[in-house]
Protein backbone atom coordinates (compact mmCIF):
# COMPACT_ATOMS: atom_id res chain seq x y z
CA UNK A 1 0.00 0.00 0.00
CA UNK A 2 1.50 3.33 -1.05
CA UNK A 3 1.76 6.48 0.99
CA UNK A 4 -1.24 8.74 1.06
CA UNK A 5 -1.10 12.02 -0.78
CA UNK A 6 -0.40 14.99 1.49
CA UNK A 7 -2.66 17.97 1.04
CA UNK A 8 -0.68 21.10 0.14
CA UNK A 9 -1.90 23.55 2.75
CA UNK A 10 -0.54 25.25 5.83
CA UNK A 11 0.20 22.88 8.69
CA UNK A 12 -1.64 24.20 11.74
CA UNK A 13 0.35 22.34 14.39
CA UNK A 14 3.49 24.38 15.09
CA UNK A 15 5.70 21.43 16.07
CA UNK A 16 4.68 19.40 13.03
CA UNK A 17 5.17 22.44 10.81
CA UNK A 18 8.71 22.99 12.12
CA UNK A 19 9.68 19.33 11.66
CA UNK A 20 8.29 19.32 8.12
CA UNK A 21 10.18 22.52 7.31
CA UNK A 22 13.50 21.09 8.52
CA UNK A 23 13.09 17.87 6.52
CA UNK A 24 11.97 19.54 3.30
CA UNK A 25 14.60 22.26 3.58
CA UNK A 26 17.32 19.63 3.74
CA UNK A 27 15.81 17.85 0.74
CA UNK A 28 15.54 21.11 -1.22
CA UNK A 29 19.17 22.02 -0.53
CA UNK A 30 20.27 18.54 -1.58
CA UNK A 31 18.34 18.69 -4.85
CA UNK A 32 19.66 22.22 -5.51
CA UNK A 33 23.25 21.06 -5.06
CA UNK A 34 22.70 18.06 -7.33
CA UNK A 35 21.17 20.25 -10.04
CA UNK A 36 24.07 22.70 -9.81
CA UNK A 37 26.74 19.98 -10.08
CA UNK A 38 25.10 17.71 -12.64
CA UNK A 39 23.93 20.44 -14.99
CA UNK A 40 26.63 23.07 -14.31
CA UNK A 41 23.89 25.51 -13.32
CA UNK A 42 24.50 28.72 -11.42
CA UNK A 43 21.98 28.72 -8.59
CA UNK A 44 21.28 31.05 -5.71
CA UNK A 45 18.73 29.90 -3.15
CA UNK A 46 17.54 31.90 -0.13
CA UNK A 47 15.06 30.53 2.41
CA UNK A 48 13.43 32.28 5.36
CA UNK A 49 11.58 30.21 7.93
CA UNK A 50 8.39 31.35 9.65
CA UNK A 51 10.52 32.37 12.64
CA UNK A 52 12.74 34.59 10.47
CA UNK A 53 15.75 32.29 10.34
CA UNK A 54 17.58 32.39 7.01
CA UNK A 55 19.47 29.70 5.14
CA UNK A 56 20.96 29.92 1.67
CA UNK A 57 22.77 27.97 -1.02
CA UNK A 58 25.04 29.37 -3.69
CA UNK A 59 26.81 27.54 -6.50
CA UNK A 60 30.54 27.43 -5.88
CA UNK A 61 32.79 29.30 -6.47
CA UNK A 62 30.31 32.15 -6.89
CA UNK A 63 29.00 34.41 -4.18
CA UNK A 64 25.37 35.28 -3.57
CA UNK A 65 26.07 38.94 -4.43
CA UNK A 66 27.37 37.92 -7.87
CA UNK A 67 24.28 35.85 -8.60
CA UNK A 68 21.97 38.68 -7.51
CA UNK A 69 23.89 41.15 -9.66
CA UNK A 70 23.57 38.83 -12.67
CA UNK A 71 19.84 38.52 -12.00
CA UNK A 72 19.50 42.30 -12.00
CA UNK A 73 21.33 42.63 -15.31
CA UNK A 74 19.24 39.95 -17.01
CA UNK A 75 15.87 41.19 -15.76
CA UNK A 76 16.71 44.89 -15.99
CA UNK A 77 15.69 45.44 -12.39
CA UNK A 78 17.66 46.78 -9.49
CA UNK A 79 17.05 46.22 -5.82
CA UNK A 80 16.93 49.67 -4.20
CA UNK A 81 19.65 50.25 -1.66
CA UNK A 82 18.75 51.59 1.73
CA UNK A 83 19.89 55.18 1.56
CA UNK A 84 18.63 57.53 4.25
CA UNK A 85 20.63 60.55 3.11
CA UNK A 86 17.56 62.21 1.62
CA UNK A 87 15.68 61.70 4.87
CA UNK A 88 18.59 63.21 6.82
CA UNK A 89 18.69 66.21 4.47
CA UNK A 90 14.97 66.79 5.01
CA UNK A 91 15.35 66.55 8.78
CA UNK A 92 18.29 68.96 8.66
CA UNK A 93 16.26 71.45 6.62
CA UNK A 94 13.43 71.31 9.16
CA UNK A 95 15.84 71.85 12.07
CA UNK A 96 17.46 74.81 10.31
CA UNK A 97 14.07 76.39 9.71
CA UNK A 98 13.06 75.95 13.35
CA UNK A 99 16.40 77.41 14.47
CA UNK A 100 15.90 80.50 12.29
CA UNK A 101 12.41 81.02 13.69
CA UNK A 102 13.68 80.72 17.27
CA UNK A 103 16.50 83.18 16.60
CA UNK A 104 14.05 85.63 15.03
CA UNK A 105 11.73 85.29 18.02
CA UNK A 106 14.59 85.97 20.45
CA UNK A 107 15.66 89.07 18.51
CA UNK A 108 12.11 90.40 18.56
CA UNK A 109 11.99 90.01 22.33
CA UNK A 110 14.99 92.34 22.48
CA UNK A 111 13.36 94.88 20.16
CA UNK A 112 15.13 93.86 16.92
CA UNK A 113 13.81 92.76 13.51
CA UNK A 114 10.28 94.05 14.11
CA UNK A 115 9.87 95.91 10.82
CA UNK A 116 8.06 92.98 9.18
CA UNK A 117 5.72 92.27 12.11
CA UNK A 118 2.03 93.11 11.58
CA UNK A 119 0.05 95.01 14.19
CA UNK A 120 -1.54 91.87 15.67
CA UNK A 121 1.85 90.25 16.33
CA UNK A 122 3.22 93.48 17.80
CA UNK A 123 0.26 93.67 20.17
CA UNK A 124 0.74 90.04 21.21
CA UNK A 125 4.47 90.61 21.77
CA UNK A 126 3.73 93.66 23.93
CA UNK A 127 1.31 91.68 26.10
CA UNK A 128 3.83 88.88 26.59
CA UNK A 129 6.53 91.36 27.58
CA UNK A 130 4.19 93.08 30.04
CA UNK A 131 3.38 89.77 31.72
CA UNK A 132 7.09 88.99 31.98
CA UNK A 133 7.84 92.43 33.45
CA UNK A 134 5.10 92.03 36.07
CA UNK A 135 6.58 88.69 37.15
CA UNK A 136 10.08 90.16 37.40
CA UNK A 137 8.80 93.17 39.34
CA UNK A 138 6.89 90.96 41.77
CA UNK A 139 9.98 88.84 42.36
CA UNK A 140 12.12 91.92 43.05
CA UNK A 141 9.65 93.15 45.67
CA UNK A 142 9.69 89.73 47.34
CA UNK A 143 13.48 89.84 47.48
CA UNK A 144 13.31 93.35 48.95
CA UNK A 145 10.94 92.26 51.71
CA UNK A 146 13.13 89.25 52.49
CA UNK A 147 16.15 91.57 52.79
CA UNK A 148 14.29 93.78 55.28
CA UNK A 149 13.35 90.78 57.42
CA UNK A 150 16.94 89.56 57.35
CA UNK A 151 18.26 92.93 58.48
CA UNK A 152 15.74 93.04 61.32
CA UNK A 153 16.78 89.61 62.54
CA UNK A 154 20.43 90.69 62.45
CA UNK A 155 19.96 93.49 64.99
CA UNK A 156 19.34 96.32 62.55
CA UNK A 157 16.10 98.21 62.66
CA UNK A 158 14.66 99.10 59.27
CA UNK A 159 11.67 101.16 58.33
CA UNK A 160 9.52 98.56 56.57
CA UNK A 161 6.37 100.66 56.31
CA UNK A 162 8.04 103.76 54.94
CA UNK A 163 10.35 101.79 52.69
CA UNK A 164 7.52 99.61 51.40
CA UNK A 165 5.60 102.76 50.51
CA UNK A 166 8.73 104.03 48.75
CA UNK A 167 8.86 100.83 46.68
CA UNK A 168 5.22 101.22 45.72
CA UNK A 169 5.87 104.85 44.78
CA UNK A 170 8.75 103.73 42.57
CA UNK A 171 6.42 101.21 40.89
CA UNK A 172 3.13 103.13 40.51
CA UNK A 173 1.87 100.73 37.85
CA UNK A 174 2.63 97.50 39.76
CA UNK A 175 -0.17 94.95 39.49
CA UNK A 176 -2.03 96.93 36.82
CA UNK A 177 -1.94 96.72 33.01
CA UNK A 178 1.02 98.73 31.84
CA UNK A 179 2.96 99.46 28.70
CA UNK A 180 6.45 98.22 28.02
CA UNK A 181 7.38 101.85 27.42
CA UNK A 182 7.17 102.35 31.20
CA UNK A 183 10.15 100.03 31.68
CA UNK A 184 12.41 103.05 31.34
CA UNK A 185 11.05 104.38 34.66
CA UNK A 186 12.00 101.27 36.66
CA UNK A 187 14.93 102.04 39.00
CA UNK A 188 17.95 99.85 38.64
CA UNK A 189 18.59 99.39 42.35
CA UNK A 190 16.82 99.70 45.66
CA UNK A 191 18.33 101.87 48.37
CA UNK A 192 17.85 100.52 51.86
CA UNK A 193 17.35 103.02 54.68
CA UNK A 194 18.62 101.38 57.84
CA UNK A 195 19.52 102.74 61.26
CA UNK A 196 21.18 101.07 64.22
CA UNK A 197 18.90 100.05 67.04
CA UNK A 198 19.39 102.31 70.07
CA UNK A 199 20.33 100.53 73.31
CA UNK A 200 17.97 100.77 76.28
CA UNK A 201 19.88 103.01 78.71
CA UNK A 202 17.37 102.46 81.52
CA UNK A 203 18.32 98.79 81.79
CA UNK A 204 22.05 99.61 81.75
CA UNK A 205 24.07 99.80 84.95
CA UNK A 206 26.19 102.62 83.51
From TrEMBL:
Keywords, alphabetical: DNA-binding, Nucleus, Transcription, Transcription regulation
GO BP annotations listed: positive regulation of transcription by RNA polymerase II
Name of this protein: MADS-box domain-containing protein
Cellular compartment(s): Nucleus
Primary subcellular site in the record, as a coarse category: nucleus
UniProt KW Nucleus keyword: yes
Pfam family, one: K-box
PROSITE patterns named in the record: K_BOX (PS51297), MADS_BOX_1 (PS00350), MADS_BOX_2 (PS50066)
Domain K-box, chain residue ranges per copy: 85-174
Organism encoding this protein: Gossypium tomentosum
